[in-house]
Amino acid sequence: MQIQINPGSGVHISEALERSILESLGAIDRRFGEQLTRIEVHFQDTNGPKGGVNKHCRIEARPRGLDPVLAENTAEDAYDAARGAARKLERVLDGRLGKLVSKQRSSHQPPEPGI
Fold it and tell me: Which one of 1, 19, 25, 55 counts the least CB within 10 Å of its CB?
């Protein structure tokens, strides 16, 4: 699985922020990495120099053979925005891909013995 981090205007991707993003996406990689081709992380500073809750993070995951999955979060800093978006993405992927895994498992189980 490929991870691409795209800074937006007003957001600098430092090494520390990149490590934090990769750490936040670690659980997703462990659970769904085999089913995903790529994750793209996009940032935007929504208020410019005014400050406040203005760092927006959008994470898009691309599951193999399915439409992309998107999660977004806005926070005071890019670290919190990325962590929140990663948590949301994990829940969305669990709902989408978790159902597929359950269906695959149930279709491969032997029939129950008759009474």
Answer: 19
Domain that holds residue 12: 2-107
pLDDT in tens, the chain (115 residues): 899 999 988 888 999 999 999 999 999 999 999 999 999 999 999 876 666 668 999 999 999 999 999 999 999 999 999 999 999 999 999 998 876 655 555 555 555 555 5
Count up the domains in the chain and report the number.
1
> Helices 78-107 and 15-24 meet at what angle, rounded to 10?
30
Residue 115 in domain: no
Looking up residue 79, the CATH number of its domain turns out to be 3.30.160.100
